[in-house]
C-alpha cells in the first residue's frame, strides 16, 4: 500500500482526529481491539435509523428489510471466508462464545473418558479454559503441544502427541502474543487422518490475512468482529454444515425452534439452530461493512503492509540491547503483534510511561498465562500493528522506549 493511499485511509478513522479526541494517540493495541472506520459506524447507525425491526419475526416492511440486511451480512461473511454456504455462518458475540458453543454443543456431547483434546501452549485463555472444562466434565485428557526455538508450534511435538485417542484439536490461527501462524492446513490434514475434528481460533488471523475455509478444511473457525474493524459484541462461528446440523443447540429460546409442544420441542437446522433470541443485527451489519472495507483495500495488501511495518519494528527492536523480543524471526507467515520486554522494567511501567508519550501498547499476560509461564516470564508488553499505522508512528514508539529507560534511571545499553 502506497503512503498516499494510507493517508487517505487514515481519514476514515476518527480516533486520529486529535482535536476531537482531546489528544494524539499512536494506537498500537490493535490485537486487543481494532479502531473502527467511519463507514462501519455509519452503517450501524443507518441500520438503526432506517431498517430497525426484529428480523425473521413478522411480515411488515421493516422486519423484511431487517431480515434482508441481516441475511445479506451472513452471505458476505460466508463469501469472505469462502464457506460452502451461508448456513455455515453462525453469529455469536465473539471468539470466546464461538469456542464455548463448540465445547457445549459438540465436545460435551461427543467426547468421553480417555479421549484426548490437543491444543498448543500458544492458546488464548478462551481456547484453554474451555477445554479444561470439557476435560473435567467428560474425563477426556487435555494435551499440550509446545514450541520450537522460533516461538512457533513444534510440529514434531504435535505429531508425537496426536494419537488415535485424539478426538479434538483446537489451535490458534495466529498467536496474540508471539504472532506465530501455525501451519493450520497441515494440522488439519494430520488431525483428520487420525479421525480428530479441528477447531481454529481465528481471532488474530482473519483480520490480517485472507482465510479460505474450503482450503484450510477445518471443522470450526472462530472470529471476533471487534478485532477486524467492527463493533464489539459480534462474532462468527464457522462450522461444517453436516457437523452443525448434528449438534445439540447451545442456547434455547425463540427463533431456533421448529415446533414447541407442551412437553418437548424440535429445532431448526444451522444457522438459526444456534441463534436463540434476538440477535445483534446492527453488529452483523457493521461486520459486513468492515469486510467490504477490508476487501476494497485487499486482504493481501493488508497482510503485506502489516508485515512490512512489523518487520521494520522487529528489525529495529532487535538492535536495542535492553529489549527482549518474543517473535518468530524470518517466519514464512507471521502476524503483526510484537511482544517484548524492556530489561529490568515491569511491562506495566513500560506501558504507563509510553502512554505519557501518547503511545498505546498492551501490558500484562494478554490472556495467555500458560504461554508466559512457558517462556519463563510473568508478563510482557505488546505493540500490535494495523495497516492504518505508519512507519513514523513506529519510529516514535521506538524513540520513546529510550525514555522508558531514562525515566526509571536505566542506561541505554
Ligand atoms: N483468541 C485470541 C488469539 C485472541 O487474541 C482473543 C482476544 N484477545 C480471543 C481469542 C478472545 O477474543 P474475544 O475476547 O473477542 O472473545
TrEMBL record:
<dbReference type="InterPro" id="IPR015422">
    <property type="entry name" value="PyrdxlP-dep_Trfase_small"/>
</dbReference>
<dbReference type="InterPro" id="IPR000192">
    <property type="entry name" value="Aminotrans_V_dom"/>
</dbReference>
<dbReference type="InterPro" id="IPR015424">
    <property type="entry name" value="PyrdxlP-dep_Trfase"/>
</dbReference>
<dbReference type="InterPro" id="IPR015421">
    <property type="entry name" value="PyrdxlP-dep_Trfase_major"/>
</dbReference>
<dbReference type="GO" id="GO:0006534">
    <property type="term" value="P:cysteine metabolic process"/>
</dbReference>
<comment type="function">
    <text>Catalyzes the removal of elemental sulfur and selenium atoms from L-cysteine, L-cystine, L-selenocysteine, and L-selenocystine to produce L-alanine.</text>
</comment>
<dbReference type="GO" id="GO:0031071">
    <property type="term" value="F:cysteine desulfurase activity"/>
</dbReference>
<feature type="domain" description="Aminotransferase class V">
    <location>
        <begin position="26"/>
        <end position="397"/>
    </location>
</feature>
<dbReference type="Pfam" id="PF00266">
    <property type="entry name" value="Aminotran_5"/>
</dbReference>
<protein>
    <recommendedName>
        <fullName>Cysteine desulfurase</fullName>
        <ecNumber>2.8.1.7</ecNumber>
    </recommendedName>
</protein>
<dbReference type="InterPro" id="IPR010970">
    <property type="entry name" value="Cys_dSase_SufS"/>
</dbReference>
<comment type="similarity">
    <text>Belongs to the class-V pyridoxal-phosphate-dependent aminotransferase family. Csd subfamily.</text>
</comment>
<dbReference type="GO" id="GO:0030170">
    <property type="term" value="F:pyridoxal phosphate binding"/>
</dbReference>
<keyword id="KW-0808">Transferase</keyword>
<keyword id="KW-0663">Pyridoxal phosphate</keyword>
<dbReference type="InterPro" id="IPR020578">
    <property type="entry name" value="Aminotrans_V_PyrdxlP_BS"/>
</dbReference>
Amino acid at each position: 500500500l502506497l503512503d498516499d493511499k494510507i493517508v487517505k485511509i487514515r481519514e476514515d478513522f476518527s480516533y486520529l482526529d486529535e482535536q476531537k479526541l482531546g489528544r494524539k494517540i499512536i494506537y498500537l493495541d490493535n490485537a486487543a481491539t481494532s479502531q473502527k472506520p467511519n463507514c462501519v459506524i455509519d452503517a450501524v447507525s443507518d441500520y438503526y435509523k432506517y431498517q430497525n425491526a426484529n428480523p425473521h419475526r413478522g411480515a411488515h416492511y421493516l422486519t423484511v428489510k431487517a431480515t434482508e440486511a441481516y441475511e445479506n451480512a451472513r452471505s458476505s461473511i460466508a463469501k469472505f471466508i469462502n464457506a460452502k454456504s451461508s448456513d455455515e455462518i453462525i453469529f455469536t458475540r465473539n471468539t470466546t462464545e464461538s469456542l464455548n458453543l463448540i465445547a457445549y454443543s459438540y465436545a460435551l456431547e461427543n467426547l468421553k473418558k480417555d479421549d484426548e483434546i490437543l491444543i498448543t501452549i500458544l492458546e488464548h485463555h478462551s481456547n484453554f479454559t474451555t477445554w479444561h472444562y470439557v476435560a473435567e466434565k467428560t474425563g477426556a485428557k487435555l494435551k499440550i503441544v509446545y514450541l520450537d526455538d522460533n516461538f512457533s508450534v513444534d510440529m514434531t511435538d504435535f505429531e508425537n502427541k496426536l494419537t488415535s485417542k485424539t478426538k479434538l484439536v483446537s489451535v490458534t490461527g495466529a498467536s496474540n502474543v508471539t504472532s506465530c501462524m501455525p501451519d493450520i492446513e497441515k494440522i488439519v490434514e494430520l488431525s483428520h487422518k487420525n479421525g480428530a475434528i479441528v477447531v481454529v481460533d481465528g481471532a488474530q488471523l482473519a483480520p490480517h490475512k485472507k482465510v479460505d475455509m474450503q482450503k484450510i478444511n477445518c471443522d470450526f473457525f472462530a472470529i471476533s468482529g471487534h478485532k477486524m474493524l467492527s463493533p464489539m459484541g459480534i462474532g462468527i462461528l464457522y462450522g461444517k454444515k453436516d457437523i452443525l446440523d448434528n449438534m445439540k443447540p447451545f442456547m434455547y429460546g425463540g427463533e431456533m425452534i421448529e415446533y414447541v409442544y407442551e412437553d418437548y420441542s424440535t429445532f431448526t437446522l444451522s444457522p438459526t439452530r444456534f441463534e436463540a433470541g434476538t440477535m445483534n443485527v446492527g453488529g452483523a451489519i457493521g461486520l459486513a461493512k468492515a469486510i467490504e472495507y477490508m476487501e476494497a483495500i485487499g486482504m493481501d495488501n493488508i497482510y503485506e503492509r502489516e508485515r512490512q511495518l512489523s518487520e521494520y519494528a522487529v528489525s529495529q527492536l532487535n538492535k536495542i540491547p535492553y529489549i527482549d523480543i518474543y517473535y518468530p524471526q524470518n517466519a514464512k507467515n507471521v502476524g503483526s503483534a510484537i511482544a517484548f520486554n524492556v530489561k529490568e522494567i515491569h511491562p506495566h511501567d513500560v506501558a504507563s510511561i509510553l502512554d505519557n508519550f501518547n503511545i498505546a501498547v498492551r501490558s500484562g499476560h494478554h490472556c495467555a498465562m500458560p504461554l508466559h509461564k512457558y517462556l519463563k516470564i510473568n508478563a510482557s508488553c505488546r505493540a500490535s500493528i494495523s495497516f492504518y499505522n505508519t512507519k513514523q508512528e513506529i519510529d516514535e514508539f521506538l524513540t520513546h522506549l529510550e525514555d522508558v529507560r531514562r525515566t526509571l534511571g536505566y542506561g541505554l545499553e
